[in-house]
Every structure is written in C-alpha cells, then in structure tokens.
Design goal:
By secondary structure, the protein is α/β, with parallel strands linked by helices. Helix content is 33%, strand content 21%. The chain has 3 domains: 5-18 and 38-85 and 445-565, Pyruvate Kinase, Chain: A, domain 1 (3-Layer(aba) Sandwich); 90-154 and 263-437, TIM Barrel; 169-260, Beta Barrel (M1 Pyruvate Kinase, Domain 3). Bound molecules: adenosine-5'-triphosphate, pyruvic acid (PYR), potassium ion and magnesium ion. InterPro entries: Pyr_Knase, Pyrv/PenolPyrv_kinase-like_dom, Pyrv_kinase-like_dom_sf, Pyrv_Knase-like_insert_dom_sf, Pyrv_Knase_AS, Pyrv_Knase_brl, Pyrv_Knase_C, Pyrv_Knase_C_sf.
Length: 567
C-alpha cells in the first residue's frame, strides 16, 4: 500500500476536468432505491449560481464520473461570505415535534443550521414520524442539504401513561394523587395517573419519594392500596403525558425489579424496524445498560440492511450506563449525554462531571458525542435564553462536544428557530474565542487503531492536524470511502475546517454529526492528483475556495498527505 507524504508545488491548472481513472476498490453495493440517473435541484431560489442549480446526479454509489458536487446553499453562502475560519464546528441536533413538523418549519431549521433532525419514538405515531422523515429527505434532495435523521427509542423505564387526552395536568402542593398500574378508560378519574410498569405498586414503599421528569414535580408515597399508590405532592408543577418516573429512598434511586426491564422493548423493536425501513441514519438507544445490547442491535441492523448503514448512538442516562461507560461507548457509533433522565437517576450536582467525563472519553475513543437536554429550556416559553443557559451551551462548546441538541425547545416550544439561532451564534462565538486565545485544554489522544493499516491512518491524521495548525492552513481536505479518516481528523479538533468528500449521500449525512466536518458528496477515483484538480475546479467555480488558499489533502485510499496551494 502506498504511503506518501508529499510536499507538492501547486499543480498546473488543468483547462478541462481531468479524466477519472477506474476505481481501485470494488464499488459499494447499490442502495435499494436505485436511481441510476436523476437530477438534483440544488441551492434553489437563494442560489447565487442559478446556472448550477440543475446538475446530473448519480445517486448513492459513486457510479460513473459526474461533474457535480453536493453541497447546500447555506454552507456555500457561509464559505463565500466569511471564509473557512468562520464556519461552525459544533453540530446542531433538533428534536422535531408539533412546533416544527411542517415542511416550511423543517426548511427554516435546515437553513438555520440544523445538521440532524431527531424524532423521539416516545411521542407521535408512525405516520407522523414517516411524514417528518420523508419531508427531511425531500429537503435534502431538493435543496442539497445533508440533514441526517436520528430516531430515538422510547426504552422501557417507568413512565406515566398519557393523561386521558389532556396536554398536561397541574399538580398543586399538598394534593393527593393516585398512581396506579390499573388501565383506565379515558377520561381518567380525577387526580389519577396510570403507570406502565406492573411491578410499580409492589416495589414502592410508604415514605419513598416519587420524581416526575427527574424532579420537575415531586410526590411522597403515603399509602399503598392494592394496585393504587396514594402520593402527596410536595413540589408542585406540570405533569406531561408519558413523563418519566423514578422513585428514591434515603436519597438513592431505587431500582428493584425494574432493573430487569429490557433496554429494547417490543415496542422499540417495532420502531427500529420502522426506522430501518424508512432509512434513518442514526438510532439512539434510550436507557442503555450494557455494551451487549448495542452489539445486539448492531448485528440486527447489519443482518437487516445489507445496502445501508445505520449508526447506533448509546444514550447515557441511567446509573447502569455510567457504570459500564467505556464498554458501551466502545460498542457504539457515538453517544448522547442525555441529561434529562440522567438528572433523575444521579444527583443533579453530579451531572456536569458526568458530562465532562463522557465527552472526553468519546473523543478519546473517536465516537461522536451529543450533549442534550435543557440547554435552552426557558426558550420553550421565552424568546431569549437565560444567562445561565448561554453559559451552559458555551461550556459544552468549550468541551468541544461534537453536537448540541434541542429537545422541547424545538419540538413543542414557542421559539424553535430562535433557540437554534442562539445555539449557532453561541457556538460560533465560543469557537472563535478559543481559537484566538487557545483556551482549550490539549488532550492526550490514545492510540485506538486495531490494525496496522488503521494505525497508519491514525498517525497520518494526527500529523496532518498538527501540520494544519502549525502552518495555519485554510482547510483540510479528506477523500474518504469509509468516513474513518474524516472522523480521525475531526477527533484532533484542528483549527481549520475539514472538507470531507465522500461518494455516498448516506455517508455524507452521517458525517454531518461530527465536529468540524463539512461533508460533500462527490464521486472520486484513486488518483489523488485528478481528484484534487477536479475538486478545486468545482469548488472554485462555486466561489467556495480561491487561488492561493493553503490546503492539506488526505485520502484513505492512498493513505497520503499533500500540502498544496489552490492553483
Ligand atoms: N413527536 C412528538 N409529538 C408530540 N410532542 C412531542 C413530540 N416529540 C417531542 N414532543 C414534546 O417535546 C417534549 C420534549 O421532547 P423530548 O424529546 O426531550 O422528550 P422527552 O419526553 O423528554 O423524552 P427523552 O427522555 O427521550 O428526551 C416532550 O416531552 C413532548 O412534550
Ligand atoms: C435526551 C434524553 O433522553 C434525556 O435527556 O433524557
Ligand atoms: K426517547
Ligand atoms: Mg431520556
């Protein structure tokens, strides 16, 4: 295998596009929806290059050489206006709900920087989710976006049922409510809540504390009558349908037999089959307890879809997931710091250190990590964030998490776009600050390669990122078939953005979760010289790079590094 570290003088500009040599690798299997030749409408109305809007597009598999490159109008405009340095490195995930499911609302989020749309299977029907997923896909096809879709499983922790159709219910101080494992016909009897876990009434004891949604409302158990548990409200608040329930005894979370509840319930398996058939990009698994369940799901997915890949994200939100953290992260394709439920399972004051530990470990193990929940909680109701929320977002950005997530703020809040705009502007500001003032801690990156070839890739990426910082290059270019080299570069968190070129649209979407990567779809060959010339011409034609820009280019086919000026 060739390993080249070449310092090239700028190649002579090629008047016509170079010919593509044949691919050195067997082509990837064709995706199930094979569209041998179609036209992708890109950068529609807002495109500064209307003449480039309609370009031949060769589908997922790389296929024959085309002259197109897939990039969205927003990235294009951002690069053109502000140059490489200003691109946002932290990725943004939005939970889609009633406030954001309409086509124009989804488009507004994509335009404002949503990289991943999350649908939460705790809520909504398959029809509703299908509508959202297809709308996101349509947006990608019509406007050139690479918004990935993440499906989040419900998991089978203890939660309340729905409130007999009511959107919420208010629990007042001192009121007595009944939590019951009986199933009721709606409307529910007054001040009654059904609980999904059959062992509930047996497991709780008089004197236990019952926390709704991690403490948004608190009750004390005062009496057990068969399937009914009478509780007095000690901390009033709003009860929302299907809210999570935990119970605590002597300041400790009680996990009796509910510790035996499966991580992936029968409902979750149906949802996962649905996600596979709709072609989601990520499945986030709620209440993960062990690495085994992740491996189990990954082999299930591998057996089910030969032609598409779905990344599995482990949600770290339970005591068990924290106990088995490293094994779980190693088994997964990424992790989410799910602070909402985590804060109901460990004392709140331990959540920030858990976050820091997870973010750090994920980076060391080269897995993308999402920081989630309550980042801008007050923006569900108000158009501006609190100072504390801005500080929390800043801290997650400073920790250099791959992505930040909106939950209720975008799913059912009053100001979804404003909340996204806050995430975007705070990310940009903090990223610039730490670049200018070197305010981030250098991180020891342990060797993670499992083969000699991987070891070469890892060394190349570590060196390239270091060179990029030392030489002050404008961008790193990586031509990647598996995405691996792109993620290894992202792991180094270099000062400049990383342009990741991949021949598959699904890979492009998956890379969109990772810190600092600007993913493009482009068919390319094993001949780096010709890839580079072609890429330069295409990007120059769209005004996204200019002559004289300094670039370091890597490829996972040749395992090479080249330093060059754009001709
Ligand atoms: N598809 C949907 N339909 C209706 N409401 C939704 C939907 N998705 C989210 N929501 C609302 O937005 C709120 C916040 O969403 P979020 O995804 O954080 O849910 P959650 O119930 O807290 O569960 P999780 O712990 O999985 O995040 C939910 O409590 C719900 O009220
Ligand atoms: C996101 C999520 O599931 C949580 O914070 O609990
Ligand atoms: K969920
Ligand atoms: Mg949760």
């Amino acid at each position: 295998m060739a390993q080249a570290l070449r310092l090239l003088s700028p190649p002579t500009p090629s008047p016509s596009l170079p010919r593509l040599s044949s691919l050195p690798f067997p082509p990837r299997p064709l995706p199930c929806r094979s569209r041998p030749h179609r036209y992708a409408l890109r950068a529609a109305a807002s495109s500064p290059h209307p003449d480039l809007d309609l370009l031949p597009f060769d589908g997922d598999a790389g296929g024959p050489a085309t002259t197109s490159i897939d990039v969205d109008s927003v990235t294009e405009a951002e690069l053109k206006e502000n140059g490489f340095r200003s691109t946002r490195r932290t990725k943004l995930v939005c939970t889609i709900g009633p406030a954001t499911c309409a086509a124009e609302q989804l488009e507004a989020l994509a335009v404002s920087g949503m990289n991943v749309a999350r649908v939460n299977m705790c809520h909504g029907t398959h029809d509703w989710h299908r509508g959202v997923i297809r709308q996101v896909r349509r947006l990608n096809e019509e406007k050139g976006f690479a918004v990935a879709v993440m499906m989040d499983t419900q998991g089978s922790e203890i939660h309340m049922g729905d409130l007999g159709g009511a959107a919420s219910a208010k629990a007042e101080d001192g009121e007595i409510w009944t939590f019951s494992v009986r199933s009721f016909n709606s409307p529910l009897p007054e001040r009654t809540i059904s609980v999904n876990y059959d062992g509930f009434a047996e497991d709780v004891r008089v004197g236990d504390e019952l926390l709704v949604d991690g403490g948004m409302v608190r009750f004390e158990v005062i009496e057990k009558i068969g399937p009914d548990v009478k509780c007095r409200c000690n901390d009033p608040g709003l009860l929302l349908p299907r809210a999570n329930l935990t119970f605590w005894r002597n300041d400790r979370l009680i996990r009796e037999r509910n510790a035996m509840l499966p991580t992936i319930s029968s409902k979750d398996w149906l949802d996962i089959d649905f996600g596979i058939s709709e072609g989601v990009d990520f499945i986030a698994v709620s209440f993960v307890k062990s690495a085994e369940v992740i491996s189990h799901l990954k082999s299930y997915i591998a057996a089910r879809c030969h032609d598409k890949e779905i990344a599995v994200i482990a949600k770290i939100e339970s005591v068990d997931s924290l106990k088995n953290l490293e094994g779980i992260i190693r088994a997964s394709d990424g992790a989410m710091v799910a602070r909402g439920d985590m804060g109901a399972q460990i004392p709140l004051e331990e959540v920030p250190s858990a976050q820091l530990k997870i973010v750090k470990l994920c980076r060391q193990l080269n897995k993308p990590v999402i920081v989630a929940s309550q980042l801008l909680e007050s923006m569900i109701e108000y158009p501006t964030p609190t100072r504390a929320e801005v500080a929390d977002v800043s801290e997650a950005v400073r920790q250099r998490a791959d992505a930040l997530m909106l939950s209720g703020e975008s799913a059912m809040g009053q100001y979804p776009e404003k909340a996204l705009a806050v995430l975007r502007s705070v990310s940009l500001r903090i990223e610039r600050w730490w670049r200018e003032e070197k305010r981030y801690e250098a991180m020891e990156l342990p060797d993670i390669a499992s083969s000699f070839s991987d070891k070469i890739s890892e060394e190349i990426c570590n060196s390239a990122a270091k060179m990029a910082n030392n030489l002050g290059v404008d961008a790193l270019f990586v031509f990647t078939r598996t995405g691996h080299m792109a993620s290894l570069l992202s792991r180094c968190r270099p000062d400049c953005p990383i342009f990741a070129f991949t021949s598959s649209t699904s890979m492009r979407r998956r890379l969109n979760l990772q810190w600092g990567l600007i993913p493009f779809r482009l068919s390319f060959s094993g001949d780096m010289e010709s890839n580079l010339n072609r890429t330069f011409s295409l990007l120059k034609a769209r005004g996204m790079i200019k002559s004289g820009d300094l670039v370091i280019a890597l490829s996972d086919m040749l395992q090479s590094i080249q330093v060059m000026k754009v001709p």
